[in-house]
Design a protein that fits this description.
133 residues, alpha+beta, 6 strands
C-alpha cells in the first residue's frame, strides 16, 4: 500500500489524499462499525468521542476477523450524527489517534441520523492485506 500526500494540496489535512494498493493484495470492506457493546446496546449515549472509541475498537475487531489491522486500512468514511463541527472534530480526533502514524484517506461527514437508537458515530473502512506467497 502507498499512502499519497499531495504537495499541491493543503497540508492541513491529517490524512493522505489518496492511496494505492499493490497487486497480490486482498481487499477487505467493512460494514459501518457502530458504537454497540457485545449485547447490542449503544454505548456512551450523547457522547460522540465516547462512541468513537467503541466504534474504533469494534472496527479493529471486525478487521482482525478478516485477517487485517488498522495499518492495512486504505480508506475510511466517518459518519457523525450532528450538525455541530465541534462534534465532528471530537470524533475525528479519536479516529485519527486510533490510527497513530498511519493516516489513510478519510471522509468525515455530519449526517442527520444513524441506524441505532442514540447512535452518533459510525466508521466504515477498506483495507488492503498483502497476500503471502
Amino acid at each position: 500500500m502507498n499512502l499519497i500526500r499531495v504537495p499541491a494540496l493543503s497540508d492541513v489535512a491529517e490524512y493522505a489524499y489518496a492511496a494505492t494498493v499493490e497487486p497480490s493484495t486482498r481487499l477487505v470492506h467493512t460494514a459501518g462499525a457502530c458504537p454497540l457493546d457485545a449485547e447490542g446496546r449503544t454505548v456512551a449515549p450523547g457522547d460522540p468521542a465516547g462512541q468513537a472509541r467503541q466504534v474504533m475498537a469494534n472496527l479493529e475487531t471486525a478487521l482482525a476477523a478478516a485477517g487485517a489491522r488498522l495499518t492495512d486500512v486504505v480508506k475510511t468514511t466517518v459518519y457523525v450524527a450532528s450538525s455541530r463541527q465541534a462534534d465532528l472534530v471530537a470524533v475525528w480526533e479519536v479516529v485519527r489517534d486510533a490510527f497513530g502514524d498511519h493516516k489513510p484517506p478519510s471522509t468525515l461527514l455530519g449526517v442527520a441520523v444513524l441506524g441505532y437508537s442514540d447512535q452518533l458515530v459510525e466508521v466504515e473502512a477498506v483495507a488492503a492485506v498483502r497476500e503471502e506467497a
